[in-house]
Every structure is written in C-alpha cells, then in structure tokens.
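Hi P.,

Sorry for the delay on this. The queue was packed all week, but I finally got your sequence through. Input first:
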Amino acid sequence: MDIAIYFKTIDTSLLTEGGDVPGNRYAEIIDIYQHDGRFPDLSETDIAIFGVSEDRLSVNNEGCAMGADVIRKHLYTLFSGNEKVKVADLGNIMQGYTVDDTYFAVTNVVSELVSHGIIPLIIGGGQDLSYPVYRAYENLGQIINIVAVDPMFDLGKDSQEINSRSYLSKIILHQPNYLFNFTNIGYQSYFVDQDAIGLMKNLFFDIYRLGNVRDNMDDVEPVVRNADMLSIDVSAVRSSDAPGNANAGPNGFNGEELCRIVRYAGLSDKLSSICFFEYNPSYDRQEQTAMLIAQAIWYFLEGFYQRKDDYPAKARDQYVKFHVKIRDHKDEIIFYKSKKSERWWMEVPVETSLKTKYERHYMVPCSHRDYQDACEDNIPDRWWQVFQKMM
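Then the structure:
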C-alpha cells in the first residue's frame, strides 16, 4: 500500500528553529517529508511520526487539529542522545471530507506501519482518533491491550455518537472485538461517575486513580509494559505544566511524571503504537505544552533504543523462574525474572487450545511487589483479572 497519498508535506520553516546551534539535532537526523523532497524510505525505519489534522469530534477543544506542527517546531530543536535513531516524519493526515474519511486514512496508515514492525507515533487531533488506531489492529487480526493516560474514562453514553469523550464505548461495543484489556492511568474521581467505576471493574479493566499513581510511580512501569497501544490525553497533565488544552485543570500529572510514563512505554518490547492527543496551541502559553510533548517524545525515543528484547516468549533460560503456591488456591503462580533487565512477569494458566489466541496476554508484566504479595498468600490483582478473562 502506498500510504504517501494520505499525507501533506511539512513546512520546512519548522526546521530552522535553533538552527544556529551546532550538534546532532533531530531536524538533521529524522527523515522528514518536506515540500520538495521524497516521501521517507520506510525500509529501515523504527518509528514513524505523523500528525492528524482532525478535531471535529474533540469535545470543547476545537483547535487541536493544528497542534502537530507546533510540537514539531520544538521537537526538531532537541539533540539526539547516544542512540542512532531511525525515525521518519511522514507529515500530516489532513481532514477528510467527513470524519469517517479521516478515520479510514488513520486506520490504513497504522495498519501498514504496524504490519511492517514500525511504531506509529501520532501527534495532534482529538482522542476520538484512538478508535481508528484500534481498528488498525482489527485489520491485522491482533488482540490488544490499550492503556490510556486520561483524567476520565471516555465512556460517554450508549446512545451517543463517537467523540473524544465516548470513543471507549465505541471500542468496547464494536464487533468483532479485539480488545483484551483496557487500562486507565490517572483518572480523577470528581470527573468519573461511580457507576462507570463499577462497569470498569465488572469488565475486569484496570483503573488507577491519580493520587495512587503519583504516590508510587514505579508501579506504572508494568502497567505500561503490558500495553500494545498507549493513548495520552494532554488534559491528564495539570494546567500549570500543560496549559495547551481547553479542558486543562489544576490537578493532574506533572511534566516529569508524563515523561517518565512515556519512557516506560519506549522501553516496552510489546508496545507498538503511541498517541499524543488533544494538544491545542490556541491555549498554550509560550508553547509550553508543545515543548513538554516534544521532550516526552525524546524520552520515548531514548527508552525505545534501550529496549532489552526480553519478553518471556523467548528462551526461558534467560529468566529465573519462581513457583509460588497460594493457600486454598489450586493453581500455583509462576513468576519469571529477566536476567537482562530484572523485570518481572507472571504466567496465567490458559487452556492449550487458547494459547495461540492469547499468546501476547497470558504472560503478565508485574513487579517484585507482586511476587512478595504472592509469597504472603495474596493473589496479585493483575494476575486475577487476567485469569478471569481466560476462564
């Protein structure tokens, strides 16, 4: 498929910001789709950045369609680390005649990239674009886990048409369904109906309240490591750090915490797409939010080029294996600790006939604390929720 037909070239004036500073800046090492240039050669590309100029279904945040180029202006001034990056910037997918036309383009582009082992990194547009990104995995027949960094669940109402506040319901109700698990990181209770919390728990989805996450950021790492797709609503960051969103509030993650979450995503061998949505330059004082997103992308790239390739589907002699017997529970819990990274996984029992279908899901990322809890006869919540879905 020739995905170049979906893209508009990038304004080359964006590449001149900070150009008088010598060094290995991203403007010089990212393969960029410029006006007079060729479309990037993706044959050796690891990560493909692109924007989506679509905000017609972004609730109370019209203008987020214009965010991608402002983020680029700050991204291109940053210096690369020690890694040799293989990154392309494909330009922007412009608004289609209808929103469905834009969705069609996003789905086709993401499908093509993921099928060739390239990570799409999407900047700009409303968070309803999570839906066409999810549909790309449906095209590939791949059951996935979605993690959203968001102050609310975006469930909307069953009767609503899709928008940035209801895309999750659209995903849940879509048939055939390729969603194995959804996780929310950083919800704020005053934005969430208690019935919605009950629904998420009944679906065995994982939800993490903002205060609990901030109290122990280390616990975020295995959560993000379990994601195939990471969707970030910029309004999850407090307005003092990220004012560039019409729905920005006084509470939320700070900038350093966002960068930490995104770096965890980069380090994950499993993650295959990442999206930054709802950035609106109309509200962005001194382009502070654009700078933060650009720096978060820097951390993602740093994490990606430090991946350990130690997901335990490989030779088990690269892991230390622990068997933990839980009192009054017939199944023992098997833990694996990577000798490369010292990261942990739990194995959830699954019928042999289902192992192929759930091959990416019955090995559950966890922490050393989960192992300690099991040793004290407590079944880790993460293990139990996956076990329920396998039954």
